[in-house]
Amino acid sequence: MFVAQIRLAAMGMTESRAGILRLIGGDSLKPRGVWTEDQVKTQATTTTENEDGQGDDDAHTAFGAEDPYECYRKMLKVGVPRQTVEERMRIDGVNNTGLDGVNMNEALHPEQALAPIASDTPVMKTKRRRWHWTEVSKADRAPPPLEGSLWMQVDEKEAHQRLTAPSQAYIQELYVRKIGNIVESSKRAPLMSKARTASTIQRPSRLRSTGTVQILKGNKAVNLELAVNRITSPFADVAKDVNILTAMYLQDTDVRTILAMWPSMAEEIALEEYSEDFEALKPSEQFLVTIRAVPMAKEKLECLLLKLELPSRAENLKQAAGLVTRALNQLCSSPKFTKVMQLLRDFGNLANEEFVENYRARFSLESLTKMSHTKSFDNKNSMLAGFLHVLWMENDGNLSDFYDEINLVLQCKSVSVDGLTSEMNQLREGYNLVKSVALASSNASDDGAKLAQKAFTQFADDVDDKLRGVQTSLDTMNTSKHKFQSWFEEDTRAPLDQHLKAIVHFALAAKAKTLYSTNQCHTIYQV
């Protein structure tokens, strides 16, 4: 029984190796032929003759067709671990020193196939946890200002010496490991998924009140009823006031609900065709019948809603644009934040070991969010936490409170620049609607139309004045935005919200680190 189990396990291993060989083009588990020194000399002679007789191309083709390392390179390409490939090469009697470059003169004899091979080929002896930062291409980045951008303020030469020795040692400790001394675990926690069944709740249909007629159904009727019940004025008076934009006693939430629950085409036809007792209708339907007698009733309700909300919406828009403007100016003028970004660039080059051949002179601010994704080898510190610790070690910790110089940026946490643009576009659409209603009212000759035309024309002028003031604030913000993009050499097509969000996340993490360290010091002092 025990022997059968051993054979069964060996069969599984054989099938696994066979699958790998089939994947790379092999058709058996037999070792490939070993190139001996005589075969190498013979091949070299053949190659020389081919060069004299047929040309370099034919000789190269004949040589490459019998390359014993080709199958092993294929194994590496499909993801087979290098250690497994080298073990396979020892079993097959092939020198693994030629895996990175063909080295025919050191092929193994069959009797040396299973013996350990001492390789003199230099291999990577360290493993790094890298910060995957991004850099804007030269074609897409904003041109720097005449006095130079943030990245041009310090010389690239000897950049690796700007970080002190303790900081460099700390980076090496967290993010660099010898290959044979990896602490990280290959185990992965199983993903647990819990399936939840959604139950469908059958709601009982609402019974009609005795003696009333209901045309609107479902939630629309309920929500509309709640909004209409809060109107205390007679519906006829409300209709007259809506016609001339004087129904300012209505709540903006109620007007918004009425517009959202506006009857569909079929419901409008049903209301128009209703010819029975008016009092038999529900209050919400009585209101709709009355208000729809006003020309362009829905459009005039939308204009009334704009009139109710315009002062607060315009003021909020101006304040938000002003806040973003001042925050961008802070980022461009803060000495501490400038030094922190330059120090972070040196930190990234050192952690990624890119000082020698691939020195990064700049990085995009969106890379700040990626610092939390990279963990140290002990999985206790992210790249962001490591840099904040280095920030405390450098310059006597004087840069650790840089967030105080850009405090307005932290207030932009809930502000969306794209949202400001969208809000301005909505106000412009409302302004165009007011003008169209005024123009339509001028074509009628009755007294109600004349009053409406005068009221809507006056309101259109008021909206235009408000929007001019808001646009001035937005233009100032866009000027600061262009200055910000030039100072950091950012992509002009990238949304500003993306950059502000990354900076806010970075600054809040630094602030939390400072508060934690301060509390720890106070605790130790008290003890």
Automatic annotation (TrEMBL):
SUPFAM superfamilies: Formin homology 2 domain (FH2 domain) (SSF101447). Pfam families: CCDC53, FH2. Signal peptide: none annotated. SMART domains: FH2. Gene3D superfamilies: Formin, FH2 domain (1.20.58.2220). GO terms for cellular component: WASH complex. Residues 118-527 form the FH2 domain. This is FH2 domain-containing protein.
